Amino acid sequence: MLILQAAQKLLNTSRLEASLYISQPSEGQLLHSWYCRLLPTGFPGKLMVMYVHEPSLMTIVCRGKTIKGSWDEFVLRLPLLLEKYNFQPSFIQAEMALVNGYVVGKTNSRSMLGYMNQQVKQLEYDCSLFASYDHISQDILEERMMEYLYQPADKKKPFTTAVEYWKEWMILP
Question: Which residues, at least 6 apart from 45, have a Cβ–Cβ distance to it below 8 Å?
Answer without folding.
Answer: none
